[in-house]
Amino acid sequence: MQYRESGMPDMELWETFFDPVSFLKTLELNPHTNNYLDVGSGFGTFLIPASKIISGSAIGIDVNQEYLDICSKRIGEENLQNIYLIHGDSSNEKTLETVTQYVSEVDYISLFNMLHCEEPLELLNRTAQLLNPKGKLGVIHWKSNKTPRGPTMAIRPSPRKVRDWGEQAGLTFLKTSDLSPYHFGVLFEK
Ligand SMILES: C[S@@+](CC[C@H](N)C(=O)[O-])C[C@H]1O[C@@H](n2cnc3c(N)ncnc32)[C@H](O)[C@@H]1O
Predict the structure, then answer these.
(1) How far apart are CA 34 and CA 106, in angstroms?
(2) Ligand 1 pocket, residues with Cβ under 6 angstroms
(3) Is this entry keyworded Disulfide bond (predicted)?
(4) Residue 98: inside a domain
(5) I need a surface site. Which of 18, 46, 81, 90 has the fewest CB within 10 A?
(6) Nearest to 17 by CA among 137, 140, 118
């Protein structure tokens, strides 16, 4: 099932809203990170730059084949060899299990612009199970201000709410970051 309000505008417009490399670095993705998993990888906006920062493999999961096709085309154009794409629903345990066909361990998981979904705590719980001990999980989301895009205000989580959900999922809160102009980030460790 595709999560509520999880569509995006054209890639060109979508990618004016972020500075992916700077966001990833702020949320402590670095060359010491081996394997990386991007849940809801969309156009590859974060997955592709992340694959160039880490030392191992980058895996993207998305339920939308159209977005995966766009992402796959970009990967081919750049001839990136360390990215794997999985077509599936990240609420489904079987989809998440597929990750282990590509990597035995996951050191970093991103849930970017995802936690306005119907069951955010469940998504955090399931994905956190895939993380290595001391692995990191980064969340970004739209601020609850007027922004040029983003889900309905009523379903945007606050940084505090994200922190509470992460802690309920058994993760240790590390920090909240301002990712101006439109986003905030929250980083956890397992
Ligand atoms: C708002 S977009 C964010 C994309 C990307 N994370 C980014 O920030 O650029 C939400 C993404 O989640 C994907 N998605 C929605 N429901 C999903 C599900 N059940 N399982 C996996 N991906 C899903 C959508 O297809 C879309 O690519």
Answers:
(1) 8
(2) 1-3, 6, 8, 40, 42, 45-46, 61-64, 67, 89-91, 112-114
(3) no
(4) yes
(5) 81
(6) 140
31-62 pLDDT per residue, tens = 999 999 999 999 999 999 999 999 999 999 99
Query: Based on the structure, what is the number of domains in the chain?
Result: 1
Classify residue 101 as exposed, middle or buried by CB count within 10 Å of its CB (0-12, 13-18, 19+): exposed
Ligand 1 atom showing the smallest separation from residue 140 Cα: 8
Cβ contacts of residue 176 below 8 Å, gap of 6+? 159, 163, 184, 185, 186, 187
Name the closest-CA residue to atom 20, ligand 1.
89
> Could you tell me the CATH number of the domain that includes residue 71?
3.40.50.150
Is residue 21 a part of any domain in this protein? no
Domain membership of residue 65 as a residue range:
32-185
Identify whether 17 is part of a domain: no
User: Once rounded to an integer, what is the mean pLDDT over residues 170-190?
Assistant: 98
Asked if residue 12 is part of any domain, the answer here is no
Confidence class for position 138, pLDDT limits 50, 70, 90: very high
Q: Residue range 114-141: average pLDDT?
A: 97
In contact, 111 and 137? CB cutoff 8 Å: yes
